[in-house]
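Input record, target 12 of the design panel.
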């Protein structure tokens, strides 16, 4: 029979006495030749030995095999008993994840909830059905595929489940596995081990709770805010703010150290971070509400926290990066940097109107030096170039030309529809011949020393040509949108003013401080004026004294308001589309106007959407307006507000961004899906208190 076959070392051991017979026969032959009598005696002894060896081999073989089989059976039973009594909860599954065997420890964990043939996902929902089989038969040699781990809670314990898929088609378990019918023996088996890590998890949580969080706390625009405040009131106000900071730190068992008159270093344990998150950093509101009698000055603070770094230096770097983001987004908010993850809290209020002429002059002088030292300068705005982006680029071009430096504006031909009228005016003039290049030419000619100036955008994914950002180490960013965690790298100069009305306003301020004062020609002045006018919705949104000072400066450069108004007049068809979209608008959650541009509409859809959004704000009690449209196979959302809602936060949740009163987003989904997504975001933000 098949099982009676003996091979290997055992077979050699059994046949060894038979192997000696030929040797003894040869010895006998030699004796017969040498001495006949001795050879006869030897032959008799060899014959007797051979008979005895053959008899013993024939009768002992079966006995040896029987003893070995009995030993193997007892050994297998011992193994099975040991597996059943093993303290480690263990189970076997078929390739589909159905339970086919488990030991006593596994039963003790689950009790009566365990039953053969049940899928493991019905017992542990954290182990999904989709993970079976762990790997295909071709990949079984790859342990990274056949071995998986899951962490989950079951009852009051925390477990780590290890699944290991093993092929069994080379083995015969017919005599060993009672439940053989539950799976295909030619397939695979999955072993499951449960490691109780409850205590280990408690230690992890304890270490996490006791971990140190470093942070920086800055008072926003300290000098500018207190410039017109009396000395006694300033001292009292700062003392009250520091008292509030001390009170807040005491509540979380934290400490703070004053590094400067408006800067603090804070330290507290990680377990209190969840408390700060739950109350949405109430310290921001507490400081904002601090005031001195008969004084309308309100100060705000920004907080940057560094979490989960492998060294204290790294945590401090995280905190520095976080506070830079908080200030770059307008202040009055907290930013948590946890590795590559960035979390924002606060920032719901509109940015304060702070006149920062000193900062503008410093940035203008720095830009002047960079332009003078650069052999080649490229200027680039954002995808879907609008008049503010183009106007800012023209402004930089005008500055470079005044400094007798070479500059080019990077602009795709198919991305300039919204500024077509303005662009045609530039193309019709010989002195602007070749001042615009497409991105392919820019990519071909750019060098590592080229100065790249990015205007009206600070997210690398939204620039006109993202490839250029990786091809030079000299990048300048000038923008009025709030900064996000998705930042442009290799910046040698950054000027981001979230409370500025437009990038054109910021560039116009530069004119006053570069080369003794630059006067743009009438066409350039018209373009810059148009950028400010559009982004402020005809000077009704996000304006400040700086805005009107900028447009006054442009008026001195022969800006013609009538000429600009004519340039922005629309076709009758566009006017009708706007009227239809406005008439179809609906009010969501009492205060939010939402409408869509008809799918059969033609023309510059994003511009039409922006105009409709501005028009909807004229309705009483409307805090914000949202216009959805389909353009170039994507859904565009234009969001507008006056001062009741921060639409930039709404658009950020949809992957977009912008300004507190002017924002937008682009979505890769259907119009109906985008509408539902927008409504869901608004509803959630109202529940969370970020919208009212």
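The sequence produced for target 12 reads:
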């Amino acid at each position: 029979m098949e099982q009676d076959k003996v091979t290997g070392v055992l077979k050699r051991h059994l046949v060894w006495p038979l192997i000696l017979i030929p040797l003894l026969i040869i010895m006998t032959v030699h004796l017969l030749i040498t001495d006949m009598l001795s050879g006869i005696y030897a032959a008799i002894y060899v014959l007797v030995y051979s008979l005895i060896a053959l008899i013993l081999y024939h009768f002992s073989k079966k006995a040896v095999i029987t003893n070995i089989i009995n030993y193997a059976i007892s050994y297998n039973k011992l193994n099975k008993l040991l597996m059943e009594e093993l303290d480690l909860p263990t189970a076997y599954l078929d390739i589909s994840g159905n339970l086919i065997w488990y030991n006593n420890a596994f039963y003790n964990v689950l009790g009566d909830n365990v039953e053969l043939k049940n899928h493991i996902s019905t017992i542990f929902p954290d182990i999904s059905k989709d993970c079976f089989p762990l790997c295909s038969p071709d990949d079984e040699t790859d342990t990274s595929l056949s071995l998986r781990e899951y962490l989950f809670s079951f009852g009051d314990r925390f477990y780590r489940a290890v699944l290991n898929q093993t092929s069994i088609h080379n083995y015969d378990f017919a005599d060993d596995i009672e439940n053989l019918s539950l799976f295909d023996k030619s397939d695979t088996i999955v072993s499951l081990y449960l490691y109780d890590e409850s205590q280990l998890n408690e230690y992890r949580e304890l270490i996490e709770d006791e971990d140190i969080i470093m942070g920086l706390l800055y008072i926003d625009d300290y000098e500018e805010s207190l410039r017109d405040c009396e000395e006694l009131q300033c001292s009292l106000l700062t003392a009250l703010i520091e008292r509030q900071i001390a009170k807040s730190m005491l509540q979380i068992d934290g400490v703070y150290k004053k590094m400067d008159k408006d800067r603090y270093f804070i330290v507290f344990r990680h377990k209190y971070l969840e408390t700060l998150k739950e109350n949405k950093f109430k310290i921001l509101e507490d400081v904002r509400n601090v005031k001195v009698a008969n004084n309308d000055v309100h100060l705000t603070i920004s907080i940057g926290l560094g979490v989960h770094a492998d060294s204290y230096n790294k945590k401090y770097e995280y905190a520095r990066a976080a506070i830079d983001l908080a200030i770059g987004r307008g202040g009055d908010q907290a930013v948590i940097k946890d590795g590559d993850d960035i979390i924002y809290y606060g920032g719901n209020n509109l940015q304060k109107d702070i006149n920062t002429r000193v900062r503008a002059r410093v940035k203008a002088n720095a830009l002047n030096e960079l332009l003078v030292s650069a052999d080649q300068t490229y200027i680039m705005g954002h995808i879907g170039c609008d008049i503010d982006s183009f106007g800012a680029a023209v402004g930089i071009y005008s500055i470079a030309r005044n400094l007798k430096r070479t500059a080019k504006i990077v602009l795709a031909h198919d991305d300039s529809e919204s500024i077509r009228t303005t662009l045609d005016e530039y193309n019709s003039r010989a002195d602007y011949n070749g001042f615009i290049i497409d991105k392919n030419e820019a990519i071909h000619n750019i060098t590592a020393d080229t100065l790249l100036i990015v205007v009206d955008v600070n997210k690398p994914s939204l620039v006109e040509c993202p490839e250029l950002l990786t091809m030079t180490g000299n990048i300048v960013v000038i923008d009025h949108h709030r900064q996000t965690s998705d930042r442009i790298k290799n910046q040698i100069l950054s000027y981001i003013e979230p409370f500025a009305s437009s990038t054109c306003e910021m560039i116009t301020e530069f004119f006053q401080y570069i080369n003794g004062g630059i006067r743009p020609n009438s066409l350039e002045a018209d373009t810059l004026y148009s950028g400010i006018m559009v982004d402020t919705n005809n000077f009704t949104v996000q304006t400040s004294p700086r805005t009107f000072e900028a447009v006054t400066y442009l008026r001195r450069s022969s800006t013609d308001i009538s000429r600009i108004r004519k340039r922005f007049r629309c076709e009758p068809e566009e006017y009708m589309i706007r009227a239809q979209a406005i008439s179809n608008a609906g009010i969501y959650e009492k205060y939010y106007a939402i409408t869509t541009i008809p799918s059969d509409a033609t023309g510059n859809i994003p511009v039409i959407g922006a105009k409709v959004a501005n028009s909807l704000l004229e309705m009483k009690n409307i805090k914000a307006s949202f216009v959805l449209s389909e353009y170039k196979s994507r859904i565009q959302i234009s969001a507008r507000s006056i001062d009741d809602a921060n639409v930039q936060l709404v658009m950020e949740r949809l992957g977009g961004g912008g300004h507190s009163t002017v924002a937008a987003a682009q979505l890769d989904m259907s119009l109906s899906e985008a509408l539902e997504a927008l409504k869901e975001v608004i509803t959630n933000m109202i529940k969370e208190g970020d919208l009212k």
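The longest helix spans residues 36-85.
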